Amino acid sequence: MDTALVGIIMGSESDMPAMEPCMAQLDEFGIPYEVKVASAHRKPAEVHEWASHAHENGMKVVIAAAGKAAHLGGVVAAYTPLPVIAVPMKTSDLGGLDSLLSMVQMPSGVPVACVAINGAKNAAILAAQILGSSDEAMRDKIISFKEDMANA
Asked: How many whole angstroms separate alpha carbon 57 and alpha carbon 3?
Protein backbone atom coordinates (compact mmCIF):
# COMPACT_ATOMS: atom_id res chain seq x y z
CA MET A 1 0.00 0.00 0.00
CA ASP A 2 1.20 3.50 -0.80
CA THR A 3 2.11 5.84 2.02
CA ALA A 4 -0.80 8.14 2.83
CA LEU A 5 -0.15 11.66 1.52
CA VAL A 6 -3.36 13.03 3.03
CA GLY A 7 -4.58 12.41 6.53
CA ILE A 8 -8.32 12.69 7.05
CA ILE A 9 -9.39 13.07 10.66
CA MET A 10 -12.96 13.48 11.83
CA GLY A 11 -14.44 14.00 15.22
CA SER A 12 -17.09 11.29 14.98
CA GLU A 13 -18.09 8.23 12.98
CA SER A 14 -21.28 10.17 12.18
CA ASP A 15 -19.15 12.50 10.00
CA MET A 16 -18.17 9.61 7.70
CA PRO A 17 -21.08 9.90 5.21
CA ALA A 18 -20.42 13.64 4.74
CA MET A 19 -16.72 12.90 4.16
CA GLU A 20 -17.27 10.21 1.52
CA PRO A 21 -17.08 12.78 -1.34
CA CYS A 22 -13.63 13.74 -0.05
CA MET A 23 -12.40 10.17 -0.14
CA ALA A 24 -13.98 9.57 -3.56
CA GLN A 25 -12.25 12.65 -4.98
CA LEU A 26 -8.88 11.64 -3.51
CA ASP A 27 -9.39 8.17 -5.04
CA GLU A 28 -10.15 9.79 -8.41
CA PHE A 29 -6.88 11.73 -8.23
CA GLY A 30 -5.01 8.61 -7.11
CA ILE A 31 -3.97 10.18 -3.82
CA PRO A 32 -3.42 7.70 -0.99
CA TYR A 33 -4.99 8.74 2.31
CA GLU A 34 -5.49 7.59 5.87
CA VAL A 35 -8.70 8.02 7.85
CA LYS A 36 -8.73 8.59 11.61
CA VAL A 37 -11.73 9.13 13.89
CA ALA A 38 -10.86 10.97 17.09
CA SER A 39 -12.57 13.87 18.82
CA ALA A 40 -10.52 16.85 19.98
CA HIS A 41 -12.67 16.91 23.12
CA ARG A 42 -13.24 13.23 23.86
CA LYS A 43 -9.86 11.84 22.78
CA PRO A 44 -7.42 14.78 22.94
CA ALA A 45 -4.35 12.62 23.66
CA GLU A 46 -5.11 10.44 20.62
CA VAL A 47 -5.52 13.53 18.40
CA HIS A 48 -2.25 14.95 19.76
CA GLU A 49 -0.37 11.70 19.07
CA TRP A 50 -1.76 11.32 15.52
CA ALA A 51 -1.26 14.96 14.53
CA SER A 52 2.23 15.17 16.03
CA HIS A 53 3.46 12.28 13.88
CA ALA A 54 1.51 12.86 10.67
CA HIS A 55 4.47 14.45 8.85
CA GLU A 56 6.85 11.72 10.07
CA ASN A 57 4.42 9.17 8.67
CA GLY A 58 4.70 10.71 5.20
CA MET A 59 1.58 12.82 5.10
CA LYS A 60 1.73 16.17 3.31
CA VAL A 61 -1.74 17.60 4.06
CA VAL A 62 -4.37 17.04 6.75
CA ILE A 63 -8.13 17.38 6.28
CA ALA A 64 -10.03 17.77 9.56
CA ALA A 65 -13.83 17.46 9.72
CA ALA A 66 -15.85 18.36 12.78
CA GLY A 67 -19.12 19.86 13.85
CA LYS A 68 -20.51 22.10 16.59
CA ALA A 69 -17.53 23.43 18.60
CA ALA A 70 -15.36 22.14 15.73
CA HIS A 71 -12.00 22.56 17.41
CA LEU A 72 -10.44 19.55 15.69
CA GLY A 73 -8.80 21.44 12.82
CA GLY A 74 -7.23 23.98 15.14
CA VAL A 75 -6.02 21.38 17.60
CA VAL A 76 -4.45 19.37 14.77
CA ALA A 77 -2.86 22.55 13.34
CA ALA A 78 -1.32 23.27 16.74
CA TYR A 79 0.51 19.92 16.66
CA THR A 80 1.58 19.56 13.02
CA PRO A 81 3.74 21.53 10.58
CA LEU A 82 1.47 20.36 7.74
CA PRO A 83 -1.22 22.47 6.10
CA VAL A 84 -4.63 21.73 7.62
CA ILE A 85 -7.89 22.04 5.70
CA ALA A 86 -11.00 22.17 7.86
CA VAL A 87 -14.40 20.87 6.78
CA PRO A 88 -17.22 22.24 8.93
CA MET A 89 -19.95 19.66 9.36
CA LYS A 90 -23.61 20.59 9.01
CA THR A 91 -25.28 20.46 12.43
CA SER A 92 -28.86 20.10 13.57
CA ASP A 93 -28.61 23.11 15.88
CA LEU A 94 -27.32 25.89 13.65
CA GLY A 95 -26.97 24.22 10.26
CA GLY A 96 -23.19 24.19 10.43
CA LEU A 97 -22.69 27.91 10.95
CA ASP A 98 -21.40 27.09 14.44
CA SER A 99 -18.82 24.71 12.93
CA LEU A 100 -17.80 27.18 10.23
CA LEU A 101 -17.26 30.07 12.62
CA SER A 102 -15.25 27.89 15.01
CA MET A 103 -12.95 26.85 12.18
CA VAL A 104 -12.29 30.22 10.57
CA GLN A 105 -11.66 32.13 13.81
CA MET A 106 -8.17 30.77 14.46
CA PRO A 107 -5.61 32.63 16.55
CA SER A 108 -2.56 34.17 14.92
CA GLY A 109 0.15 31.62 14.23
CA VAL A 110 -2.22 28.64 13.91
CA PRO A 111 -3.66 28.89 10.40
CA VAL A 112 -6.35 26.53 9.16
CA ALA A 113 -7.76 26.69 5.64
CA CYS A 114 -11.52 26.21 5.60
CA VAL A 115 -13.96 25.04 2.94
CA ALA A 116 -17.75 25.38 2.89
CA ILE A 117 -20.09 23.57 5.27
CA ASN A 118 -19.99 19.90 4.22
CA GLY A 119 -17.45 20.92 1.54
CA ALA A 120 -15.63 17.59 1.66
CA LYS A 121 -15.05 17.35 -2.10
CA ASN A 122 -13.48 20.82 -2.19
CA ALA A 123 -11.20 19.85 0.70
CA ALA A 124 -9.88 16.98 -1.42
CA ILE A 125 -9.39 19.25 -4.43
CA LEU A 126 -7.55 21.80 -2.30
CA ALA A 127 -5.36 19.04 -0.87
CA ALA A 128 -4.54 17.94 -4.43
CA GLN A 129 -3.67 21.52 -5.38
CA ILE A 130 -1.35 21.78 -2.37
CA LEU A 131 0.33 18.52 -3.40
CA GLY A 132 0.49 19.80 -6.97
CA SER A 133 2.56 22.80 -5.91
CA SER A 134 5.56 20.46 -5.69
CA ASP A 135 4.43 17.49 -7.82
CA GLU A 136 4.14 18.08 -11.56
CA ALA A 137 2.09 14.93 -12.19
CA MET A 138 -0.46 15.99 -9.59
CA ARG A 139 -0.52 19.51 -11.02
CA ASP A 140 -1.31 17.99 -14.43
CA LYS A 141 -4.22 16.05 -12.88
CA ILE A 142 -5.60 19.28 -11.43
CA ILE A 143 -5.22 21.04 -14.79
CA SER A 144 -7.13 18.21 -16.51
CA PHE A 145 -9.77 18.22 -13.77
CA LYS A 146 -10.39 21.94 -14.23
CA GLU A 147 -10.43 21.63 -18.03
CA ASP A 148 -13.01 18.84 -17.73
CA MET A 149 -15.18 21.06 -15.51
CA ALA A 150 -14.94 23.92 -17.99
CA ASN A 151 -15.93 21.66 -20.87
CA ALA A 152 -18.83 19.94 -19.09
From this structure: 8
- What is the SS3 string spanning 54-113? CCCCCCCEEEEEECCCCCHHHHHHHHCCCCEEEEECCCCCCCCHHHHHHHHCCCCCCCCE
Q: Which amino acid is at 62?
A: V
Strand order in the sheet with 84-88: 33-37, 6-10, 61-66, 84-88, 113-114
Topology adopted by domain 6-150: Rossmann fold (3.40.50)
Instruction: Let me know: does 50 contact 78? Beta carbons within 8 Å.
Output: no
Burial class (CB in 10 A: 0-12, 13-18, 19+), 6: buried
- Distances from the Cα of 126 to the Cα of 80, 108, 122, 123, angstroms: 18, 22, 6, 5
Binned average pLDDT, 10 residues per bin, the chain of 152 residues: 92 96 98 97 96 98 94 97 97 90 93 97 98 97 96 89
58-99 residue pLDDT tens: 999 999 999 988 999 999 999 999 999 999 999 888 999 999
